[in-house]
Amino acid sequence: MNVFHDAATQVQCESIAQWKKDGKPVVGYTCSYAPAEIFYAADILPYRLRGIETDGMEVGDTYFGPFICSFPKCILQLAGKGKFSFLDGAIITPGCDGMRRLDECWRKAGEDIENIVPDYFYYFDVPHKSENHGMAWYIEEIKELIKSLEAHFKVSISKEKLTAAIKEFNKGRRLLGEVENLRFQQDIVVSGTDVFAATVAGTVMPRDEYTKELKKWVTALKKRKTALNTGKHRVMLVGSISDEIDLFELIEDTGKAIIVGENLCFGIRYEGSEIKEHGDPIEALAKHYLGSSVCPRMYGKYKERLALLKERIISSQAEGVIMQNIRFCDLHGAENALFERDLEAMGIPCLRVEREYGPHIDAGRMKLRINAFLERINGSSKTAKKTKSTEEMFVSA
Amino acid sequence: MSIVAGCDVGSLTSKAVIMKNGKIIGSSIIKSKPRPKDSADAALEEALKSAGVSKNDIKYCIGTGYGREKIGFVNEVVSEIKCHGKGARWMMPSAETVIDIGGQDCKTMKIDKDGNAGRFFANDKCASGTGRFLEVMAKVLGVSIDELGKLSAKAKDPITLASTCTVWAQADVIKYINSGIPIEDIGAGINTAMAGRVAILVNAVKPEGDIFMTGGVAKNIGVLETLEKLIGKRIKRARKADPQIAGALGAALLSMEKLNGNGRNKQ
């Protein structure tokens, strides 16, 4: 497990350093709508840009201003401080407006601070609708990205290589699916913190090494007998982007809860389903990444997202949902309010909290709310046991 | 003799309540000290003194508030949201919605017939809408917090504070003082700004049934009456006990339930 925790809690872990020593390129990306398989096919390490290890905000605040989500600001701060100097390239995607502005702010900061913009700096556009012209547009964007990578890095990204990449990534997806099944059991043998660390690690580690480590870990997990959830409430964590292990620890360290599922940009939702391994790989990638609509950035898909969340609540037997949104995150702020309205109406207790992104920020305030929420679940679950199960609540709602 | 206690160590004040057979026999409110442990010790000592009992007589004690983890003498700790719900229901048995304005945060919650908190909301922005906001403003005006509350009734043309930020609002208030605006009008503006922030949270929880307010700000009549106007509902006044001790009272009530073996509040 340490290899995943090391990868999830450091901007540059050992595996990345080794990759660089071997003379191979690393390209950062910002959003779960950027198909990492394309980079793998070109023997480039796809590295999901992180905000951890930020200890100030002078660069982020200078170029972004104060009234915007702190996650892209943290990325810029790290870039400005040279923490991403190992990157050979970066791809910015309009996951939200804050992320879109990272493209402009990073370039602008690069005019004032030397060597902080990687040689390859690319804006990868993603439409907000997945039907018809949206899908066609996204396929074109993927083709343009491939051409651009091929030209800059002098590589060839053939359809065969893309299919092989899809197959390799699917191995990880299947393994994470097995982890999810373990969390759905009555007795849970793995903490939410460990699962999240393993998922985040998958966005930064070289994929072959990751798949190998994941397989070892899943095999070991299956042999575990001791339940970690005795006397604890099963909760889900959803909302704004987070790569913070601290946030999971904050909830699980109360000793009163175990996280049985999450719907977060860095979480397992991104690896939720397999990609078609036959036919045109670009179309298969587009269908998976754009067609899944798991992020509130996608228009007109609220009902689908609510249905997905309900399905996960039922399968994980979650007793409550913690909804967090980073300050100024309009997408999740609005979506959380809708989720809360609809889930509370079905009898699922929800906690909605607004917070700043960053290590240990707001920990005391968050802890108070989480403890009070768990006390609320404690009361309501006793009442619910006398009446209905979670599934029955949804059926009758 | 089943004597229990509750201790609420807040950011501005610390409170303790001693109960015997379901009745309050002693209580205290002191200004919080730099160390939560010292605040808790001092609050309990004063409450014990007013009750005329000793620490050894306490059969069970629950701690709450921001400093709860640091209290040395408690049997367990519980969140202040749960404690305020309990305390509010004891003070006002018909209460279904509770507004608690503490020193550094503001919460609204629904409670059931046993005082257990259901849905709740807490301020997430900053210090505006909290006791700290009023404390800072009272200091600038050179009046006590009690006097600040009474200024609303005397105001003729209340000012409007442009900013909800405590620091910037303070700059606004200084500007009004220097312009010669009557202190009553400035005080009323401060109370209205405070009530406006709280009203947002009250509306978010969709208040039902009788509304009751706990925390030190519940004693500020200017905020209370303006808040009633803003939410269009009457807020029940505390008569059985000081609303500022509601958290400590709730902790004492939970201690009593624990002592009596009521599993409802088992953590």
Query: Roughly how many Å is the radius of gyration of chain B?
Result: 19 Å
* CATH uppermost class of the largest domain in chain A: Alpha Beta
Question: How many domains comprise the coordinates of chain B?
Answer: 2
Instruction: Estimate the strand proportion of chain A.
Output: 5-15%
Could you say which overall geometry of chain A the principal axes of the C-alpha atoms support? globular
Helix content class of chain B: 40-55%
Distance linking N and C termini of chain A = 41 Å
Question: Can you describe what's shown?
Answer:
- The complex is a heterodimer of chains A (397) and B (267).
- Chain A has 397 residues and is of the alpha/beta class.
- Chain A folds into two domains: 2-158, Rossmann fold (3-Layer(aba) Sandwich); 160-396, Rossmann fold (3-Layer(aba) Sandwich), CATH 3.40.50.11900.
- Chain A has 16 helices and eight strands.
- Chain A has helices spanning 2-9, 14-21, 37-41, 58-64, 70-80, 97-112, 133-153, 159-183, 192-201, 207-223, 245-252, 281-291, 302-316, 330-345, 363-387, 390-396; strands spanning 26-29, 45-48, 89-92, 120-123, 233-239, 257-263, 320-326, 350-355.
- In chain A, helix 3 links the parallel strand 1 (26-29) and strand 2.
- The longest helix of chain A is centred in the middle third of the chain and has 25 residues, at 159-183.
- Chain A is globular and about 60 Å long.
- With 267 residues, chain B is an alpha/beta fold.
- Chain B folds into two domains: 1-92 and 242-267, Nucleotidyltransferase, domain 5, CATH 3.30.420; 95-237, Nucleotidyltransferase, domain 5 (2-Layer Sandwich), CATH 3.30.420.40.
- Chain B contains eight helices and ten strands.
- Chain B has helices at residues 36-51, 80-91, 131-141, 145-154, 166-178, 183-204, 221-231, 246-259; strands at 3-9, 13-20, 23-31, 58-64, 76-77, 95-101, 106-111, 117-122, 210-214, 235-236.
- In chain B, the strands form two sheets. In chain B, strands 3-2-1-4-5 form a five-stranded mixed beta sheet.
- In chain B, strand 9 (210-214), helix 7 and strand 10 form a beta-alpha-beta unit.
- The longest helix of chain B is centred in the C-terminal third of the chain and has 22 residues, at 183-204.
